[in-house]
Amino acid sequence: MNKNLSVSIYEPIYRIDQSISDKNFSPLIRLENSRPDWREFQIFLEIYRNGMYRNKSQTGVFSPKFSLKCKISSTEFLNLIHDNPGYDVYFINPFPQIAYWSFNVWMQGEIAHPGLCTLAQKLFDVCKLDINLKLVPRHGPNILLYSNFWVGSEKFWTGFVGGWLLPIAEFLENNPEHTVTRAVMKETGHTSPTPFLPFIIERLFSTFLSITSGWKYISYPIDDNKLLSYCVTDYEKILYDRMRSQILEADFKGEFTPDLIFKMEMVSTLWQQHFNDFFASNIHPHTGSIVPKHDAC
Question: At 110, is the secondary structure helix, strand, or coil?
Answer without folding.
Answer: helix
